[in-house]
Amino acid sequence: MKIDTDRREFLRLAGFGGGVVFASTLWGHPLEGAEEEFHFVQLSDTHWGFEGPPNPDAKGTLPKAIEAVNALSVQPDFVVFTGDLTHTTDDAGKRRDRMKQFRDIAGKLRAKTVRFLPGEHDAALDRGEAFQEHFGAAHYSFDHKGVHFVVLDNVSDPGAIVGEAQLAWMKSDLAKHKPEAPIAVLTHRPLFDLFPAWDWATKDGSAALDILMPFKRVTVFYGHIHQEHHDKTGHIEHHSAASLIFPLPAPGSVPKRAPIPWDEKAPYRGLGWRSVEAYAASGTYRLEEKPIRAEAPAPAAKEG
């Protein structure tokens, strides 16, 4: 299929240009020349309600990302938020207020379809009760233009597991599909042991990967680690997205996991969102990382 002008413009202008393109080449198929199917946008780890020095614009980065997505000349088929929509709080009422606020802000997206999944900040304290009240099921599946998407909840259980019931559901759901079917998994925590000492793992993630392993075209999109990261377990590819609130250091690069300090000389460094071009026929994806752009400052009001 010939790439039409609007699609080319999307690839060139998505997020006002810039960003790193990562081409996933599952099954050894080259991206160039592959039939283009659709595109979606991934946003992650917005932590609405967070306040602190790591992000003095904590209430501005999410609206900036939404503005950038809305400015795309070709709107994505859907937008997905891969968890930690809100920042954790022991106050159940405040938790729900933050979710309502987040839902209202996300409702400004122009994309016709917006999907959500929980992070531990949204769900671990009440096993996903408030999340499900505001956003629906915490795990589900859907099909889109030749790709089967599986949304896994590995955060509602405070033990950081998928759980036997959900694993059984996942196995039953995937049993309807042939081994050649392209499968995309959306989840919050990494399903593999990226760095368990920093809680960057899912305790029964290997069981989920065992269920996925017979499928020849599997890609996992996740969040949680507040940075772009790419890895593989066998033929399964794993791609984490940057956060919209503060970046975290590379796995094990420092003694203690802590937010990277805000840099006044380079504001919003390490913050961003992702556009994904999906080529279902070949099971490939073009990942483009889009940084948060600072707005031009408003003119200062004249005194007197």
Poorly predicted segments: 1-21, 25-35, 296-304
Strand elements, count = 12
- Most strands sheet: 6 strands, mixed
CATH class: Alpha Beta
How much of the residues is beta strand, in percent? 15-25%
* CATH topology description: Purple Acid Phosphatase, chain A, domain 2
Category by helix and strand content: alpha/beta
Mean model confidence by pLDDT? 88
Secondary-structure element pattern, one letter each: HEEHEHEHHEEHEHEEEEE
Radius of gyration: 19 Å
Alpha-carbon distance between the termini? Answer: 63 Å
Roughly what percent helix? 10-25%
CATH superfamily heading: Metallo-dependent phosphatases
Strand order of the largest sheet: 1-12-11-2-3-4
Tally the helices: 7
Provide the number of structural domains.
1
The CATH architecture: 4-Layer Sandwich
Q: What is the approximate shape?
A: globular
Write a structural description.
- The chain is of the alpha/beta class and 304 residues long.
- The protein has a single domain, classed as Metallo-dependent phosphatases (Purple Acid Phosphatase, chain A, domain 2, 4-Layer Sandwich), CATH 3.60.21.
- The chain is 21% helix and 22% strand.
- The chain has helices at 5-13, 61-70, 92-106, 120-123, 129-135, 164-174, 205-212; strands at 21-24, 38-43, 78-82, 114-117, 140-144, 147-151, 182-186, 217-222, 229-233, 236-240, 272-279, 284-291.
- A 6-stranded mixed β-sheet has the order 1-12-11-2-3-4, with no helix packed on it. A 6-stranded mixed β-sheet has the order 5-6-7-8-10-9, with no helix packed on it.
- Strand 6, helix 6 and strand 7 (182-186) form a beta-alpha-beta unit.
- Helix 6 packs parallel to helix 7 (205-212).
- Mean pLDDT is 88; it is low at 1-21, 25-35 and 296-304.
